[in-house]
Design goal:
mainly alpha; Cytochrome Bc1 Complex, Chain D, domain 2; 2 domains; two-stranded antiparallel sheet; binds heme C
């Protein structure tokens, strides 16, 4: 029984030469098998597994609304129309990008100036709250907290102070607000902003 079992075990290698021949045959078989496998992979047969789809790229951020902040200009060299145009250009850039150290007004007050009631009030059509140039500049220089009512909607949020913007930038951004979206309240100037810096912060009503 034992012998039978042993001869069964060694049946594949009955003499000293066979193991070498066997392993040669085995190698040959392996080569053929791998050639077949390669052939199958290249020409149909079992389709190679598709590579995992790349994770979806995040959507590109929207293009900025306006070009980068405009360079400072010397208003004293310009006539009234030139001053207005220069202030509007500076102001549009501050409104949409935050200028040099501000927070883009458009984030809260929207590109349309309509805000997002009841969180952020509209700037469109709000002559009362814009008030005089000095008052309006004060809202940007000192910020605003406390309840206000605009167009029948109550707001009680925080308008961040942005006095780190230059006088020219603040004059520009409030001029932009006062002359955009159908507003026709006229320009404001760096002198108005300088005055607002010396006055107390405006209060909500
Ligand atoms: C983080 C959001 C936010 C940003 C950014 C912001 N504001 Fe405001 N703004 C407010 C809130 C909130 C109020 C109302 C505050 C309150 O309830 O007392 C307000 C009020 C105002 C008002 C007075 C209300 C009105 O309807 O006229 C003006 C003017 C104003 N902001 C202009 C600006 C300008 C200019 C900028 C950019 C330089 C700006 N805001 C940036 C949130 C913001």
């Amino acid at each position: 029984m034992r012998r039978v079992t042993e001869s069964g075990i060694y049946a594949a290698a009955p003499d000293g030469t066979h193991p070498a021949r066997l392993s040669e045959n085995t190698m040959r078989l392996l080569v053929i098998a791998s050639l077949i496998a390669m052939g199958a992979a290249c020409s149909g047969g079992e389709p190679a597994p598709a590579p995992a789809p790349a994770p979806e790229a995040p959507p590109a951020p929207p293009a900025p609304v306006v070009a980068p902040a405009a360079a400072p200009v010397d208003l004293s060299t310009l006539d009234d129309a030139g001053k207005l145009a220069a202030l509007q250009k500076i102001g549009e850039a501050v409104y949409s990008t935050g200028g040099n150290g501000g927070i883009a007004c458009t984030t809260c007050h929207q590109p349309t100036g309509e805000g997002t009631p009841p969180a952020f009030p509209p700037l469109k059509g709000q002559k009362d709250w814009m008030g005089t140039c000095v008052h309006h500049a004060g809202l940007v220089v000192h910020g605003l907290t406390g309840e206000i009512e605009v167009g029948g909607v109550k707001y009680n949020g925080v308008m961040p102070a942005q006095g780190n913007l230059s006088d020219l930038e603040i004059a520009g951004v409030i001029t932009f607000e006062r002359t955009s979206w159908g507003n026709d309240f006229g320009p404001c100037f760096p002198e108005d902003v300088a005055k607002a810096r010396t006055e107390p912060a405006p209060k909500g009503k």
